[in-house]
Amino acid sequence: MSMPVASPARKAARNSNLELLRIVFMALIVFHHFVVHGGDVVFASRPSLHSIIVDVATMAGQVGVDGFVLVTGYFFGKAKRSHALRTASLYWQTTTYGLIIMAVLVVGGVWQPTARDVWQTVVASPFVWWWFMSAYMALLLLSPALVVMLENLSQRLHLYTIAAGLVLFVLLPQFVDVSPFMGYLSWFAYLSILANYAARYRLPGQDRPWLWLVLAAVGLAAGCARAEWLYGSAVGVAWNPQNAAELLGRNYLPNLLCAVGLFMFFSGLKARHSKLVNWLGGATLGVYLIHDHPQVRAWLWGWLQPGAHFEGRGYYLYALACVAGVYAATTALSLVHEQLLMRPFRWVWRRAALARADAKARAKAVGADPTQGSDGR
């Protein structure tokens, strides 16, 4: 039996609940970086509260990335801005962030960039400094074709595509060492297809979002349990969470369950429209671009030294303070960047687009009127 198409009310261009979800996912990413880039840790015993916190933080990064892309895919075909403007805005955003970060770190004596660093920042910043942005920008460039494909898929074929991707990208890699189908761009495209189905059709249990939260909890518990089993020998020795390949895998099934569960939970909430939430949600990409620039990352976590506080009683309070502080500071900087650089850029772009459209309209009107000469008289 076919499922009914989603009602127009579910097709709102920018839901506050999903903007809130962007904030949650980005906070998970910052938490992940606090632990993963914080240096080696030593577990006195395992399982323990410390080891489980590390497991959760290690998974949180990929859950946040997957979830961020799910939200993007949910809005495929619904964006109010033109594709050209969105692409140009993303390029301008990453380039200006790259140049500003470079200038600040040079003045602070933290970085001495080469001429190649400057050239790459100006020409191809989205593809140079951030692995996530490389795949995300590629996904955006290909999104018009992907949107056309999705709009022409029947519900049955859409489900088949999701099932085939689940086998190729998620289940198969659990049993073999290498999946020839796997890459960040293909994975992001799959997540977009998955989220777009939720935007177009009503899923079982969608009116009971708490069920999806249970799914996220199951994924988290499964991931932590497997980590404790796989890495139980990391007791009394220096161990870095980056070694936990299972938890970092972008196609790791527990990570996907967590991301989908959280996504469906928040998308099903009856949240009121909030300008504040939407405003803060719009700053989330800036939070990532600032704190996870390679040069900023090395300086930031080297300065905070999370690993040095790992065995202390105040570790959890220190972790909370660091994650909240980094998130708040980068959000403030992102909002300033939006006002000073992004809004003027979009205004100039729209004015230029209106001027081009007006010129085309006048040229067409002149060409359609045989009584007017070439000078318009």
Structure overview:
- The chain is globular, with a radius of gyration of 23 Å.
- With 377 residues, the protein is mainly alpha-helical.
- It has a two-stranded antiparallel sheet with strand order 1-2.
- The longest helix has 54 residues, at 315-368.
- The model is unreliable at 1-13 (pLDDT under 50).
- It has helices spanning 16-36, 49-74, 83-107, 115-124, 131-151, 155-171, 184-200, 209-230, 245-248, 253-267, 275-281, 284-291, 294-304, 315-368; strands at 41-42, 238-239.
- The chain has one domain.
Helix content: 55-70%
β content, as a range?
Answer: under 5%
Number of separate domains: 1
Mean pLDDT: 86
Search tags:
377 residues; mainly alpha; 14 helices; 1% strand
Question: Care to give the gist of this entry?
Answer:
The protein has 377 residues and is mainly α. It has 14 helices and two strands, in the order αβαααααααβαααααα. The N terminus is likely disordered.
What layout of secondary structure does this protein have?
Elements: H1 16-36, E1 41-42, H2 49-74, H3 83-107, H4 115-124, H5 131-151, H6 155-171, H7 184-200, H8 209-230, E2 238-239, H9 245-248, H10 253-267, H11 275-281, H12 284-291, H13 294-304, H14 315-368
Antiparallel strand pairs: 1-2
Helix pairs in contact: 1-2, 1-10, 1-11, 1-12, 1-14, 2-7, 2-8, 2-10, 3-4, 3-5, 3-14, 5-7, 6-7, 8-10, 12-14
